[in-house]
Design a protein that fits this description.
about 375 residues; alpha/beta; Rossmann fold; seven-stranded mixed beta sheet; 16 helices; 13 strands; elongated; HAD_sf
């Protein structure tokens, strides 16, 4: 179970690129008497190039600027001091930052920050964002004397939060310093996509912070065997999914015979028997059932449904991992199913082939589906 979430700062919580542009433009305006002989756009562009996205310290940046642009009426030391004092006044958070942190605290996650950089500057940026109260631990390399990707700084944070590595997630934008470093100590990793890098070997990828709570739900996902008392909730999930998700591919008349209203209680009794007879797997987030599937003898996948509010979160894939493993353990060389129009792309993506298109009649209404199969030999997980 995930108990803690740790974050990088720059490029993850703080939009450093936007913050730096604001600061540089403001510094130029305030100190125009000393910098005005350099065109503003040229000064800004060169500053950002020399900064190397924060991986080059500003003493070198300002010395280089002073040399290139013949800045003589103000020293590079004063420019550096101005940066250290005033950068915090230009900190730009990524969209949804505080709402995301508030939601995670509401869910009782322990929160931490591990960031490289000078201690005073990084702490000032955190305070400027107004997020310091959300965090239980903040470790800055300039204070700790050790920087990411060194595992020691991750281990120190985990110890402070009193969690094991497998109980924690690290969120960052750097493929090596954040993603690989966190995985190396046994943490789950979330890459906040940065267009500077082509890819990262992360467990999950997000484009904005608002996606993180859903990712954490997926990490909390548990696959359990079916219990008879689950039947009513599974039927309710089935009805809700068919009449919403599948409505994009089937008419109201077709949905009405697929999941007829008023028959939920009867279906729950029928399913209690059939799901107990089959190998049935139930996906839960917390105490809530968010999906299920069942495998009958002969390698036939009878049902696969995911709650309408939990679509496209990898739940169906997790369930199918279990179903395919079960089929292989039963000695089956192939698993087959009758997939709806809606589910067909999912099964194709998993390597299933279409054997034939079918038209099934129910109460005089015809529904189209596809008999699909996948060879398990060599594919068993």
């Amino acid at each position: 179970m995930i108990k803690a979430v740790l974050f990088d700062l720059d490029g993850t919580l703080l939009d450093r690129d936007a913050s730096l542009v604001l600061f540089v433009e403001n510094q130029y305006e305030r100190l125009q008497a000393h910098l005005g002989h350099v065109p503003k756009e040229q000064y800004r562009k060169r500053f950002i190039e020399l900064d190397a996205r924060g991986y080059r310290w500003k003493d070198e940046v300002y010395q280089q600027l002073a040399s290139e642009f013949a800045i003589e009426s103000i020293s590079w030391e004063i420019l550096l001091e101005d940066y250290v004092s005033c950068f915090q006044d230009h900190c730009v958070p990524f969209a949804g930052l505080r709402d995301m942190l508030a939601e995670l605290k509401h869910r009782s996650f322990r929160l931490g920050i591990i960031t490289n950089g000078p201690g005073g500057l990084q702490l000032s940026s955190i305070r400027a964002l107004g997020i310091e109260p959300y965090f239980d631990v903040v470790l800055v390399s300039g204070i700790e004397g050790v920087s990411k990707p060194d595992p020691r700084i991750f281990i120190k944070a985990l110890e402070a939060l009193e969690v094991e590595p497998h109980e924690a997630v690290y969120v960052g934008d750097h493929p090596a310093n954040d993603v690989e470093a966190a995985k190396a100590v046994g943490m789950a990793s979330v890459w906040k996509r940065d267009p500077q890098y082509e890819a990262a070997n992360a467990d999950y990828v997000i484009d904005d912070l608002g996606e993180l709570p859903k990712v954490l739900e997926r990490l909390q996902l548990r696959i359990e065997p079916f219990k008879q008392e689950d039947a009513e909730e599974l039927v309710e999930l089935f009805y809700g999914t068919v009449h919403s998700v599948n409505a994009s591919d089937y008419s109201s008349d077709q949905l009405a015979v697929w999941a007829p209203e008023g028959q939920q209680a009867e279906k729950a009794e029928q399913w209690r028997v059939s799901l107990s007879r089959n190998a049935t797997f139930v996906a839960r987030v917390g105490g809530k059932i968010v999906g299920f599937c069942d495998l009958a003898k002969g390698g036939y996948l009878d049902r696969l449904y995911v709650h309408r509010d939990y679509q496209r979160q990898g739940i169906a894939s997790r369930l199918m991992d279990h179903a395919e493993w079960e089929a292989g353990s039963q000695g089956e060389s192939e698993i087959h199913t009758e997939a709806s129009i809606t589910a067909k792309p999912f099964f194709l993506h998993r390597g299933y082939r279409i054997i034939r298109e079918q038209s099934v009649e129910r109460q005089g209404i015809r529904l189209r589906n596809y008999l699909m199969a996948k060879r398990l030999q060599g594919d068993r997980l």
